[in-house]
Specification:
With about 130 residues, the protein is mainly β. It contains 2 helices and 8 strands, in the order αββββαββββ. The strands form 2 sheets. A 5-stranded antiparallel beta sheet has the order 6-5-4-7-8. A 3-stranded antiparallel beta sheet has the order 2-1-3. The longest helix has 9 residues. Bound molecules: zinc ion (ZN).
Length: about 130
């Protein structure tokens, strides 16, 4: 697996994964939410960003099943699902899920976490 490059801007997200929570940024000026950590707001370019904890709930926007994993770290998990989740706080999160979960577009899900090659990643835990 290609490990994420953890920087000063992204470390709160990765620390959140280790703590079992999805963290996202909110602009203090225009209240835009963003999941990809940045030094500035993607809407107004403001630099006053605060970190918040997601409640870990959202619904499936799209999903696909991976039968041939791209890296050795994920080969043992194949087949597995990659899903795009619309989180309740207003950002989108892409994460994996076990193929045994009955996912469909619109299914409400709870996000959990799973270790992959020494990194803690968001992983769909269950359907709500
Ligand atoms: Zn903003």
């Amino acid at each position: 697996m290609t490990r994420p490059h953890i920087t000063k801007e992204t470390s709160p997200f990765w620390e959140g994964c280790t703590d079992g929570v999805v963290r996202y940024q909110v602009c203090s000026r225009c209240h835009t939410v963003q999941i990809i950590p940045r030094t500035h707001c993607s809407a107004c370019q403001g630099h006053e960003l605060a970190w918040r904890d997601s409640n870990g709930t959202g619904h499936v926007l799209s999903h696909t099943t991976v039968h041939r994993a791209p890296t050795p770290a994920f080969r043992a998990q194949a087949p597995y699902v990659i899903a795009l989740i619309a989180m309740e706080e207003g950002f989108r999160l892409m994460c994996n899920a076990d193929i045994t979960l009955p996912l469909a577009i619109g299914t409400r899900v709870h996000i959990g976490f799973r270790q992959a090659d020494g990194v803690t990643l968001p992983h769909i835990k269950e359907c709500a």
